[in-house]
Specification:
9-stranded mixed beta sheet, 713 residues, 2 domains, 4-stranded antiparallel beta sheet, Methylamine Dehydrogenase, Chain H, Rossmann fold, 11 helices
């Protein structure tokens, strides 16, 4: 059965601009939303910049050989997340083969006897699961980061591998699985019309499909255990969403059973049915600020509150019974996940699991008999650790740590803090300090440090507490790292989410500036020692920082960030068409002269000539969300003004850098860039550090100190 799990899927909409360095929709939270109705005024002109060079003519960094190696932080994990088979006898997991993460299957009590079952030689496999009959391992893969994922199946012995959705240029989505029909699943395919996903029933053994729904524009269809479609969301041009259901007796058009106002569109969604088909779970923010979870009678549509939190939306994890589909526990995540147990029968298990290891726990998978759980622990100073939990014996068996080479290294603590914004909103944020600068772990430093303001993507996503390789790299190089859940971030109630409507480059940016002021006032850093860095929406925020507040930051690192909001929305993938009303509500209406002018005013490209500080841009050539043209055009605008910029492209990547050689290559360039302009250390580079990477430096190679001759040319 396919049910929503907080932290793994978005209700209703997609993460528009969440960078995919390891997974899409970065941030880690579950859910997520008084929008303005008039177009905002044009942004005020940027202050006149001081006459100063854009960057030193010869960047000089601080190379050191005693740093945590990039390969340890950004190389492949030794093993990926295990998934238990339905009968509880086997594990599927990923491990590197010739540098590429592939899927293996092993007896659950003897992982050393693993058999390789996939054989990808180019891109890592990051999404995989068992079929409900245990006969197949199902996995998804795209080509070069284009996000047109195909669905594959292979036997647990590595035989009978088949691409079940082989049509080029088509994105396959899993809609539902079933215990009653374990050899079949529902999938969505946009082969008929690239804008919508028709629903098909797929027989896994033969690959045969049967059309279930020719999609008129629905998103997030929900099915029951008989693989019958029961509900779907239908976004409307005015930003509202209609909840639709098929007619009770079959045949004829679907009927509307509920309406979700635009204010609630990102915090209201159907999560899934119980196995009986008589009740379903609903995430709902209507009539309240934080999104709660309800159980709804499928016949009467009467809903009953199951769990709610005053300061956080549902998010951070959920545990459903593997056979009945009944919700047993739910997490709420403000600064750290807080579990609410609904089924007393698992209360003892969760109490014991909290004591088993450090960090925040998540139940990743369960055998169908509910006796075996696979549990992950995510801490701030440790790699993810995986355990097998025997519910009968109440005993845990440690499986492995994803990156054992990190054990014992001087990793930085991550401190949750709440920062007041100028209008009174509270910004849940995370401050990480170099271990040597904060030996007692109290989150304070004796002397101000250079700081990186690290901005998350989305923007309808969030930063969460836990281990981050990028945070650890930056802290190890001597930087304080501040991550801010600015308005529009999800998980903190819809008033906080909706406060960002039409505020791209405005109050959303003010929140970041307020966070910098907070850090300066507390002696974490000084006003002239801050760089801004981020991916996707965070890349946009970086470009806003350097164009619209040109003297605030010493430098910027933009990873797949859009430079022009108008060209961004006009070039999104065609299957996002049903969701464009969401972008109009929250970003701006590019179809009206007033809306287009307002979006142009907060587009960094408009202000490219104001840039006065060093800029590094990284881009995937196949990015379907933020096209390469977004980076090309601001680079060209800067070059036309005689402003230096360092521009790095990866021809085999999309919205972020999935291949470890490419990620390590970019991080080598980024840390040297930061060292030159912000003053921290960087690990010296050799040509071997770029082996296997396709990185091309299109401009500004001279801005990277220590770059080996010929690399990226």
């Amino acid at each position: 059965m396919t049910r929503w799990t907080p932290g793994t899927a978005r209700p209703l909409t997609l993460c528009l601009l969440a960078v995919a360095t390891a997974a899409a929709c970065g941030g880690g939270a579950a859910t997520a939303p008084t929008p303005a109705t008039a177009a905002p005024p044009a942004a005020p002109p940027a202050p006149a910049p001081a006459a100063e060079p854009a960057r030193p003519p010869t960047p000089v960094g601080n190379p050191r050989t005693d740093l945590i190696p990039r390969a340890v932080l950004f190389g492949n994990p030794e093993r990926g997340a295990p998934v238990v088979s339905p009968d509880g006898k086997r594990l599927a997991f990923t491990a590197p083969v010739d540098g590429v993460m592939n899927v293996f299957v092993a007896p659950i009590d003897d992982p050393g006897r693993a058999v390789q079952v996939t054989f990808d030689q180019v891109r890592p496999i990051r999404s995989y699961a068992w079929s409900n009959d245990g006969r197949w391992v199902l996995y998804q893969q795209d080509v070069g980061g284009d996000e047109n994922y195909h669905l594959f199946r292979v036997g647990p012995d590595g035989k009978d591998a088949v691409d079940l959705t082989p049509t080029p240029g088509v994105l396959a989505r899993t809609v539902a699985t079933s215990l009653k029909k374990p050899g079949h699943i529902l999938i969505g395919l946009n082969d008929r019309d690239p804008r919508v996903h028709d629903v098909h029933e797929l027989e896994l053994a033969t690959g045969k499909t049967r059309l279930v729904l020719e999609n008129p524009g629905y998103v997030n269809p929900v099915a029951d255990e008989d693989l019958r479609l029961r509900l779907a969301a239908h976004p409307q041009p005015d930003g509202t969403t209609r909840l639709m259901a098929p007619p009770a007796r079959g045949g004829g058009p679907w009927v509307q059973i509920d309406t979700v106002p635009a204010d609630d569109q990102l915090t209201t969604a159907v999560l899934g049915y119980e196995s009986s088909g008589k009740r379903y779970y609903l995430l709902d923010g209507r009539g309240r600020d934080t999104a709660a979870i309800y159980v709804v009678d499928a016949a009467t549509h009467k809903k009953t509150l199951v769990a709610a939190h005053d300061r956080a939306d549902v998010g951070g994890g959920a545990i459903f019974h593997p056979r009945t589909g009944v919700l047993r526990a739910i997490a709420f995540n403000r600064a750290r996940p807080e579990w609410k147990v609904l089924d007393k029968g698992i209360a003892g298990d969760l109490d014991a699991l909290r004591k088993l290891d450090e960090g925040d726990l998540a139940v990743l998978s369960m055998s169908h008999d509910d006796r075996t759980w696979i549990v992950a622990y995510n801490g701030d100073r440790q790699p993810t650790r995986y355990w097998r939990w025997d519910r009968t014996a109440k005993r845990g068996t440690r499986l492995w740590a994803s990156r054992p080479s990190l054990e014992g290294l001087p990793l930085a603590r991550m401190h949750p803090v709440e920062i007041p914004a100028r209008d009174g909103l509270s910004l849940v944020s995370y401050l990480s300090l170099p271990a040597a600068a904060d030996p007692d772990g109290d989150g304070a430093v004796a002397t101000p440090l250079p700081m990186v303001l690290l901005v998350h993507g989305g923007p309808w996503a969030r930063d969460s507490w836990g281990y981050s390789p990028l945070v650890q790299l930056l802290a190890d190089r001597g930087y304080a790292v501040l991550q801010v859940n600015f308005r529009g971030s999800t998980g903190f109630g819809k008033a906080f989410l909706n406060a960002a409507n039409l505020q791209w480059g405005k109050q959303m940016h003010d929140d970041l500036l307020d966070a910098v002021d907070w850090a300066v006032a507390r002696g974490v850093t000084s006003a002239d020692q801050v760089c801004i860095m981020g991916g996707s929406y965070g890349g946009y925020a970086t470009l806003v920082g350097l164009t619209m507040t040109p003297l605030t930051f010493r430098c910027g690192v933009d990873i797949v960030g859009p430079s022009n909001l108008i060209t961004l929305v006009e070039s999104v993938p065609p299957y996002w068409a049903p969701l464009l009303s969401i972008f109009k509500t929250r970003m701006g209406d590019w179809t009206t002269p007033e809306g287009k002018a307002a979006m142009r005013a907060v587009s960094p490209l408009t202000h490219a000539g104001e840039i006065r500080r060093p800029l590094l841009i990284g881009q995937g050539a196949n990015d379907p969300r933020v096209k390469q043209a977004e980076s090309d055009q601001i680079v060209q605008a800067m070059q036309a003004k005689g402003l230096p910029v360092t521009y790095v492209i990866f021809p085999d990547e999309g919205h972020g850098f999935a291949r470890p050689p490419n990620m390590q290559a970019f991080m080598a360039v980024a840390e040297a860039f930061l060292s030159a302009h912000l003053g921290g250390a960087y690990q010296p580079m050799t040509a071997d550090d770029f082996a296997g990477s396709t990185m091309k430096i299109e401009a500004g190679a001279a801005g990277i100190p220590g770059l080996p001759a010929g690399v990226g040319r």
